[in-house]
Each structure stands twice: as structure tokens, then as C-alpha cells.
Amino acid sequence: MLENKNGQALVEFVILLPIFVFMLFMAVDFGRILYNKTDLESKMDTVITDYQNSYSKEKIQERLKLENEEILLDVSNENSTTDFYLKKKIAILTPGLNLILKNPYEIVVKRVIYNE
After folding, report:
1. 85 with 110: CB under 8 angstroms?
2. Is 71 helix (H, G, I), strand (E, B) or coil?
3. Which neighbouring-strand residues pair with 113?
């Protein structure tokens, strides 16, 4: 009897290929989310510095060009604190992953500073 190893390898490849492609696309999506979150964290440092230098919200948005990058800046003043939010929506590209994560996925960075 002759065994056909090539046919078996082809079947195994066809079964595993979609799983590997899905994992590759998931890695790309999570990388994009992590990159954008890190970018927002960096921008938040600049926002806080500008706010402490008495820039207005509109001036900060114009200076950092937040509207061009579709980033939303929200500032809310409480009695003793000021809350800063930077929000950006990222489209999830991986089919199926958008069922787990909301599509578009919203990245939110929040900072609280105490008023003196």
C-alpha cells in the first residue's frame, strides 16, 4: 500500500491557514490600537503642559491639530480637579474581532490634575 503524505499535508495546511491569517490580522489590529494609545498618551502630556501655561482648549486643539487626526479633546472642571480626556476611534479590520471589540473601537486617555 502506498501512503499519500502530500495529500495529508495539504489538508492540514488548508485547515490551519485561516487560523494563522486571523491571528496575523489580530496582531496588526492590536498593534494599531497600542500605537494610537501611546500616541494619545504623548499628546496628553502636551495638552496638560499647554493648559498649565494658560492656553485655551481651542488654542490647544489648533496647536496640536487634533481635528485633523480626528481626536476629541474634552476638559471638565470640578471643584478641586480638572479632568482631561482624549478620544479617538479606530476601525477594526479583522473579521470576527469586531464582534469582540466594538467597531469602531474607541481609545480613551484620561488625566486628572488638581487645581491649586
Report:
1. yes
2. strand
3. 82
Distances (CA, A) of 62 to 4, 50, 67, 90: 67, 12, 8, 22
70 neighbors 2 (Cβ within 8 angstroms) = no
DSSP state of 61: H
Dihedral of the alpha carbons of 34, 38, 41, 45, in degrees to the nearest 10: 180
- The verdict on whether omega for the bond into residue 104 sits within 30 degrees of 0, i.e. cis, is yes
Kindly state the helix (H) or strand (E) to which residue 50 belongs, with its residue range.
Answer: helix 5-52
Query: pTM of the entire structure?
Result: 0.83
Contact 59, 90 (CB under 8 A): no
pLDDT per residue over 33-46, tens digit each?
999 999 999 999 99
